[in-house]
Amino acid sequence: MKLCRECYAVLPEPSEKGHRRRKFCNDACKQRFYRKHRSERKQLQHTPFWQEQAEFWRSRCDELQAKLDKEQKYGDTLEKALASLQEKQDWLEARLSAVEGMLRIEPISPEGERILQKAEKELDADFKRNMQEFRRELDALSQEMRDLLHTALYGPE
To answer: Any alpha helices (H) in the chain, and if so which ranges?
Structure first.
């Protein structure tokens, strides 16, 4: 018992010998079947091109995602370094202002003034040394910030 390939209806047996067996119950089923399968065949013919395109764009997307992840990690590293440098700069500025504040103390009495002059003479060398050290640290910090800004703008060398 044969069935129609489109609607699955039972096909009649051939009346004479030598005739081909029918595959469809009528011409409408035959036309509908070929139209449906023709579109599938066309789709299969164009599939390799679209598959190639899809694979290309997927790989391109993966590359860009990897690059984005790398840049994001690099940006996070820069942000941490910048925050660390800002903390160091704040700390150095606080120390500098404290030292400058110590210099602005006004004596209450002549005896206090003599004590301050004596302390100033003793601490003058230490102060100059500390100021030079602070300047070196500030210079190093500003150089580090310039380097970070350069790498942030132009990328790693």
So the answer is: 27-103, 110-154
pLDDT at residue 44, rounded to an integer = 66
How far apart are the C-alpha atoms of 21 and 8, rounded to whole Å? 15
Whats the size of the chain, residue-wise? 157
What are the extents of the domains in the chain? 27-154
| 112-122 average pLDDT score | 76
With beta carbons less than 8 A apart as the criterion, state whether 10 and 3 touch: yes
CB atoms within 10 A of CB 43: 10
Specify whether the CB–CB gap between 10 and 1 falls below 8 A.
Answer: yes
How far apart CA 4 and CA 12 sit, in angstroms, is 10
Determine contact, residues 79/152, Cβ cutoff 8 Å.
no
Going by C-alpha positions, the residue among 46, 24, 22 that lies closest to residue 35 is 24
Determine the Cα–Cα distance for residues 138 and 155; give it in Å rounded to an integer.
24
Report DSSP state, residue 26: S
- pLDDT tens digits for range 88-114: 888 888 888 877 777 665 546 777 777
Q: Is residue 119 predicted with pLDDT exceeding 90? A: no
Hey, is 110 helix, strand or coil? helix
What's the one-letter identity of residue 4?
A: C
